[in-house]
Specification:
The chain folds into two domains: about 150 residues, no CATH class; about 80 residues, no CATH class. Helix content is about 60%, strand content about 10%. It is built from ten helices and four strands, in the order ββαααβαααβαααα. The two termini are about 35 Å apart.
Length: about 240
């Protein structure tokens, strides 16, 4: 599986696993089957209640096309970059710069999808295979790519550390943080320690103080402060 490096605004590099072409194809097949099943149910329901006879041809086509127009951009926007097919295949659309894709990004991907997937599916496959970030044309235009989440559970588990039975938390405010926040903090913190980047540690510490609305004690270093926040989160999560 190919690795894809995301460079954050803090000049830290995070590696992600790019989704394989086979998984993307299977996800597309699942989405197509889901839409066909939805259309079958919709037509069956409309025919049963006798509504079909009241539709003109163009009105009927418009009603049928509306779910297709909305499914890909809106479903992915509301479901953190995943359609039903992507969710089942454990892959997700992300921005190249690690920011969350906007609705406009998903619309760009969808518009170009009509051409490179629905009309000429071979185009998308060829572009993906010859692109180092595994992007199709829609991804290139929207500055996105598709990653695999297979290792997400392992990353999630890595934030939890065994604490001493006598450990006492220092900052109770960390209980308001989410698991994904601590995952990102620990990823950045680990990289900063590896590179001995003390400026980065100070920036992480400053951001944490701002978010938690706490003041780091003068005798506590930024490194110790971040480490304490992570331990405190572990403490409250284990309650």
């Amino acid at each position: 599986m190919d690795n894809f490096q995301i460079h954050t605004a803090q000049n830290i590099t995070i590696e992600q696993n790019l989704a394989g072409i086979s998984k993307r194809i299977f996800a597309a097949v699942i989405d197509t089957l889901f839409l066909l099943l939805f259309y079958w149910f919709l037509i069956y329901l409309l025919s049963k209640i006798g509504v079909l006879d009241k539709f003109s041809t163009w009105s009927f086509i418009s009603v049928l096309m509306l779910p297709y127009f909305l499914y890909y951009p809106l479903f992915q926007y509301w479901n953190n970059g995943q359609t039903l097919g992507k969710q089942l295949m454990k892959i997700r659309v992300v921005k190249i710069d690690n920011s969350h894709p906007r609705i406009g990004d998903f619309l760009i991907r969808w518009v170009l999808r009509i051409f490179e997937v629905d009309m000429l599916p071979g185009v998308a496959i060829i572009v993906i295979l010859f692109n180092d970030k595994r992007q199709r044309l829609g991804d290139i235009a929207a500055k996105t790519t598709v990653i695999s989440e297979e290792k997400k559970q392992k990353i999630s588990h890595s934030i939890f550390e065994e604490l001493e039975e006598t450990y006492q938390p220092v900052f109770s405010q960390v209980a308001n943080l989410k698991e994904k926040d601590i995952e990102l903090i620990k990823t950045l913190f680990t990289e900063a320690k590896k590179q001995k980047n003390y400026k980065m540690m100070n920036e992480i510490s400053g951001k944490l103080q701002e978010i938690l609305q706490v003041q780091r004690p003068d005798q506590m270093t930024s490194k110790k402060f971040i480490d304490t926040v992570i331990k405190d989160f572990n403490y409250f999560s284990g309650k």
